[in-house]
Write a structure and sequence with these properties.
With 390 residues, the protein is mostly beta strands. Helix content is 1%, strand content 46%. Strands 25, 26, 27, 28, 29, 30, 31, 32, 33 and 34 form a ten-stranded mixed sheet that branches. Strands 6-7-8-9-10-11-12 form a seven-stranded antiparallel sheet, with no helix packed on it. The protein has a five-stranded antiparallel sheet with strand order 1-2-3-4-5, with no helix packed on it. Strand 9 and strand 10 form a beta hairpin. The chain is rod-shaped. The termini are far apart.
Length: 390
């Protein structure tokens, strides 16, 4: 074949330019009978152009049996892929939608641009039953950040709500649902059962060490080889309460045991005051020495807080205050009736709400509040005491 430079032009019988090969640019151009460009391969840009004014451009790829298998449809702006039987298997539309079908024509994959939804899978058709091929089973909602899974009847069995940061499992039609967490050896370690409402935790040996039983509203901690303990901390991450299963102990970080009592006038009270029982049954600060109606000390001062408070309701009551009846507590005292030393017994005093040293042993019986843990040599102040009513 001759080696040409420049251009090679092929004309039809009417001398119309139909095919042009441009050697310098590496271009191929094909025109119709009226000179309209229908195919253009641009050697510079390595671009292939099909169609043009008055005619759409299509690219069709056939198999060895001359059957159309792949088509780029310039008129519709679609890309089609068909199997050997001529059935459409893949379509990419000009709107950006993608559809994939199986040999029976069922949609297996669809991406919808308008809803930004991706559909995967379909239920096989059943004779005599109308089936929605897009019955939603799994949904990843990019707009809200949600995830949901439905059963064949459309019941939501799994849902993660991004707004509420909440995970839902089970629901209508689920029967029983649960959540099981396994370790690297595929052993069940944590199990949540919605049917019974139970929670169970096992150690690596399969021993149950934690169990909440919904039916009996009971909580079991510890088990074979593992003594259970329960720790409650405050906002500063300090241990405040601990239940120790191994020793059977209850450990409270605070010092005294108090009980809520009704008082005559809560507004006049201050923590550390010595309280006595009034004639109307309400509690008032002491105002006389050696008062046999002494009850205890208003809790909550001098670094001491009640470890436990008895008879306290769910709601606060302005007419009730916690009064310490046992343990260590800071007590208001007046050394003007006698210097207080460590170990001295204390009783009520004429100073409102204050204790004093019990020097009159004959009058002390039945009026003792407790024993001083620190001295108070003069004046009035707070004295740590060990409450021991006697």
């Amino acid at each position: 074949m001759a080696d040409f430079e420049g251009e090679v032009i092929v004309h039809d019988r009417a001398n119309n330019e139909r095919i042009t090969l441009i050697g310098n640019e590496g271009d191929i151009r094909v025109k119709n009978a009226v000179g309209e460009l229908r195919l253009h391969f641009d050697g510079v840009d390595a671009a292939l152009y099909l169609g043009g004014q008055g005619n759409e451009g299509d690219l069709i790829i056939r198999d060895e049996a001359n059957k159309e298998r792949i088509k780029l449809d310039g008129g519709a702006g679609h890309i089609w892929v068909r199997d050997a039987a001529g059935k459409e298997r893949v379509r990419l539309s000009d709107k950006g939608n993608i559809a994939v079908r199986d040999a029976a024509g069922n949609l297996l994959f669809q991406f919808d641009v308008n809803s930004s939804a991706l559909h995967l899978g379909t239920r096989p058709p059943r004779t005599g039953i109308e089936v929605d091929p897009f019955r939603e089973r799994i949904k990843l909602d990019g707009a809200h950040g949600d995830i949901s899974v439905k059963d064949a009847a459309g019941n939501v069995l799994f849902r993660y709500s991004n707004v509420a940061a909440t995970l839902y499992l089970g629901g209508k039609g689920a029967g029983g649902s649960g959540l099981i967490l396994r370790d690297a050896l595929n052993k069940d370690r944590v199990r949540l059962s919605s049917r019974e409402g139970d929670i169970g935790v096992q150690d690596a040996d399969g021993n149950e060490v934690f169990r909440f039983v919904s039916g009996s509203a009971s909580l079991d901690i510890g088990g074979t080889g593992k003594a259970g303990s329960l720790v409650v901390r405050d906002g500063a991450n300090k241990q405040r309460i601990k239940l120790v299963g191994g020793e059977g102990d209850i450990i409270l970080s605070n010092a005294d045991a108090a009980e809520d009592f009704e008082v005559a006038d809560a507004a006049e009270l201050a923590a550390g005051m010595v309280m006595v029982l009034g004639q109307d049954g309400k509690h008032i600060p002491c105002s006389s020495g050696y008062d046999q109606t002494v009850v205890g000390v208003v809790s909550g001062t001098g670094g001491y807080r009640p470890g436990i408070v008895f008879d306290r309701g769910e709601k606060s009551d302005d007419h009730r205050v916690p009064i310490s009846v046992m343990g260590k507590v800071a007590c208001r005292a007046d050394a003007g009736y006698g210097s207080i030393r460590v170990g001295d017994l204390l009783t009520t005093s004429p100073s409102p709400g204050c204790a004093m040293k019990a020097e009159d042993r004959g009058r002390a019986f039945g009026t003792i509040i407790g024993k001083a843990l620190e001295p108070l040599h003069e004046g009035a102040g707070l004295v740590p005491i060990l409450i021991s009513l006697q």
